[in-house]
């Protein structure tokens, strides 16, 4: 199966290719979009062990001069020190402005490679080859790149659109179950904020907690609908001046949970799941959508076997100040993405501390 989804931006048009066995054609597709010369492949040890050889062989067969940078796996390594390591390899191998960086990995590798490309020689091309479900449906598209800071997640970064996003569903065969569930959190997000049909498909599925229960047909629909939703939103608002902010549904409290647990206890998708539960409850508390909709959302999150409660060691008095350091704060007010119906959401800064506190207390 193969699907091509264009991301139509005024100056940065590119395609998202969803193709079974697509990794074997990485080099050919880079050549087809006019790339040549040197390529720096960035990955982590686990992903490189499984797919590095295939990617490098494809690139070399297409005439590319390939070097590599292997970084440790994990959110805690998403730092400026890792960016420096990528730069070191790039400069040692004399990458030029016409060169390309290829991110082979999950969201962490994609974010770091994109930021390194944005800041190398004032900007060189980057191609995203996501290997996790979360990266396939979210992180690899849209041009957001960056690293974390002790004060919060993704506070240092830049918008740098990829030249191509290549999604090969076959690489999910080696994805751990926990990481698959993390990706499903972002899929559920798209159903809530943009695509009611996708939400209905997820609601009808018997199980969503492991890939083998999802099946190839539903998996392809999940990838296609999620990528199309992201492409639709990004095409209308490339740099989050308005509409694109709805893609942060579940992320406001989710990022606080990640930060306060040191990026070790819960992963990004699990934190987003918790954040969506909170956002749905906040919307109900503010009479913005009915309890039945909150219950339907909760049922899908539970079906995916994602956490729906806050970690026991968190303190509400720590969460509230952390929310105010989020990059989505505007004029000192925390902005929440809240649902108004299945398939539509909006941004508001009218959520009071009392409502947040009340909802969070119910989530311990």
From TrEMBL:
Needed cofactors:
NAD(+); Co(2+); Zn(2+)
Binding residue positions for NAD(+): 107-111, 131-132, 144, 153
| Cofactor-binding details, from the entry | Binds 1 divalent metal cation per subunit. Can use either Co(2+) or Zn(2+).
Q: NAD as a keyword?
A: yes
Which UniProt keywords are listed?
Amino-acid biosynthesis, Aromatic amino acid biosynthesis, Cobalt, Cytoplasm, Lyase, Metal-binding, NAD, Nucleotide-binding, Zinc
Q: What residue stretches are annotated with the 3-dehydroquinate synthase N-terminal domain? A: 69-181
Q: Which residues form the 3-dehydroquinate synthase C-terminal domain?
A: 183-329
NCBIfam families, from UniProt? Answer: aroB (TIGR01357)
Q: Describe the function of this protein.
A: Catalyzes the conversion of 3-deoxy-D-arabino-heptulosonate 7-phosphate (DAHP) to dehydroquinate (DHQ).
Q: What is this protein called?
A: 3-dehydroquinate synthase
List the source organism: Leptothoe kymatousa TAU-MAC 1615
């Amino acid at each position: 199966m193969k699907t091509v989804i264009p991301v139509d931006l005024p100056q940065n048009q590119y395609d998202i290719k969803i193709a079974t066995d697509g990794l074997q054609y990485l080099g050919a597709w880079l050549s087809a979009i006019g790339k040549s010369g040197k390529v720096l492949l960035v990955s982590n040890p686990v992903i490189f062990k499984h797919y590095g050889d295939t990617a490098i062989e494809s690139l070399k067969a297409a005439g590319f001069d390939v070097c590599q940078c292997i970084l440790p796996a994990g959110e805690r390594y998403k730092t400026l020190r890792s960016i420096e390591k990528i730069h070191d390899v790039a400069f040692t191998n004399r990458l030029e402005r016409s060169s390309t960086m290829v991110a082979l990995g999950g969201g962490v590798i994609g974010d770091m490679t994109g930021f390194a490309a944005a800041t190398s020689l004032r900007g060189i091309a980057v191609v995203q080859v996501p290997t996790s479900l979360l990266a396939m449906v979210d992180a690899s598209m849209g041009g957001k790149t960056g690293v974390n800071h002790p004060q919060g997640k993704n506070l240092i970064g830049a918008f740098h659109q990829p030249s191509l996003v290549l999604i090969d569903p076959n690489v999910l065969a080696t994805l751990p179950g926990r990481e698959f569930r993390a990706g499903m959190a972002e899929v559920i997000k798209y159903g809530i904020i943009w695509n009611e049909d996708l939400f209905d498909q997820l609601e009808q599925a018997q199980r969503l907690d492991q890939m083998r229960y999802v099946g190839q047909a539903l998996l392809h629909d999940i990838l296609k609908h999620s990528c199309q939703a992201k492409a639709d939103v990004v095409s209308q608002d490339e740099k989050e001046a308005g509409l694109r902010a709805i893609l942060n549904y579940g992320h406001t409290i989710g990022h606080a949970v990640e930060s306060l647990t040191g990026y070790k206890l819960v992963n990004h998708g699990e934190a987003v799941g918790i954040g969506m539960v909170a956002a749905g409850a906040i919307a109900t508390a503010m009479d913005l959508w009915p309890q039945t909709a909150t219950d339907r959302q909760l049922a899908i999150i539970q079906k995916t076997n994602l956490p729906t409660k806050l970690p026991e060691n968190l303190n509400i008095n720590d969460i509230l100040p952390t929310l105010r350091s989020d990059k989505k704060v505007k004029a000192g007010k925390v902005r929440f993405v809240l649902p108004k119906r299945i398939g539509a959401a909006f941004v508001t800064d009218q959520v009071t501390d009392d409502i947040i506190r009340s909802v969070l207390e119910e989530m311990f």
